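Okay, is this right?
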Amino acid sequence: MTLSTSVHWLRRAQVEKFAIGAFNANSLEQMQAIVLAAQEERAPVIIQVSHNAAVYMGAGNRLAGLRLVTAMGKTVADMVDVPVVLHLDHGGEMDLIQAVGLGFTSVMFDGSNLPFDENIRTTRRLCEIAHEAGVAFEAELGEVPRAGVSGEEEGELTDPGQVAEFASRTAVDALAVAVGSVHALRQKEIALDFALLDAIHAAVDVPLVLHGSSGVLDESVTEGIRRGLCKVNVATQLNGVFTRAVREYLAAHPDAVDPRKYLELGRASMIGQVRERIRLFGAAGKAAA
């Protein structure tokens, strides 16, 4: 299927109280796993690629990586008949503009490190560029911290008093909010701040996004979806199952030299994990309805 935009699905998720799974990919095998899992579950799905993943896939050349990701995204989307969105995750200004021009169908600008008014101005300008090309746009208000990174251990929770102004002045299609989650956690140990999420949801009609879900307790994720989260990002949890499958194969076959043998197992393991997340988010079967 041709790459889709996320706007329709985010709005539908908002009404029907499910969330679209947005899964980060760092390789072709991971991109394949995402769409094949969505096909099995008959669900819309979002392939996410970060700046660092694009640099990696371009062997150090960011623009080459974005071009390669676009080509791979279009190709793997054609492998299935469910909606597939290709999304730039946490893009800078240059990343975002180039991704829009190359054919990404959704982009995210993270201006959480900017002062409020500057974040609005920059987000609005970039959002207009994306919308002119028919590309969905996500922004972040507040800052989701990253585990184990000096200077990033503590983020700033989203201020519910700012969300309405931010949304109206930027015209974003989705808003990533900081309600207690943390990027790159390997264990599920966090409960979301539901009082804060409720206050944000009451203040704005824009579909809300949860970053850093790998460290959030499953029951907290599902309750968050019931309270208005429409897109849930997953990265570390997927990398974990992929890597474990590869590690186990190599431990059992120390003389192995064919990478297809272990990458295939990594892909299969990730397919299972993505399918499980899609079901948890309530998105299974939505592409068939």
